[in-house]
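DM from R.C. (forwarded with permission)

"hey, sorry to bug you on a friday — could you get me a structure for this? deadline for the figure draft is monday and I only need the backbone to look sensible"
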Amino acid sequence: MAATETEICNLALTRIGQGTITSLDEAFAPARACKTVYDPAREKALRHHPWNFASKTALLAQVGTTPEAWTYAYQLPVDLLRAVKIIPGANSLSGVASGVTLDRTQDILFEIQGDLLLTNESEVVLLYVWDITDTNKFDAAFVSALAFLIASEVAMSITQKPALQQGMYQSFLAEIPPARAVDSSEGRREQPYGTTIVDSRL
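My reply, with the result:
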């Protein structure tokens, strides 16, 4: 389901009983409201789940200074929105006896401090959610959920109806679990991660 930013916002406006817009740059209150909330809402919706379309991996580079309690520090990708998990790298295999199966489903502990990832791993390949803006790549379920979130963000300023705002947000939350289930079943070979992350930025 390819949709432009304007089309996603129009879906949101329709859900709160408003007319559509032709551009986010219109000098029209709903357009201005949508333009203000669109990027923050997109980032928030992306962070709710390691969506297949928004997930990628990167081999991280070590930095010199490591805070106490951790062995290594790594520079985070500039486009990172959410760190999901460390994927065991080549160094993780060193010292494993022949014939022993390495459990690659086990979480590797790490902590996020500012723009650094701290861990005891000597090599880090990070699976993360990135700040994707190309709406042509968005999953249909994500588009629907994002539209509900945008609707909740603009409902109060446009309609002055708190109940409508709350209802749109509850609809957003209701859309996430089934969207996660479908997304996780489409080519994801590993379980969702993140329970062992200590993220001091959040």
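R.C.: lifesaver. The chain has a mean pLDDT of 84.
me: no worries. The helical segments are 5-15, 29-47, 140-159, 162-185.
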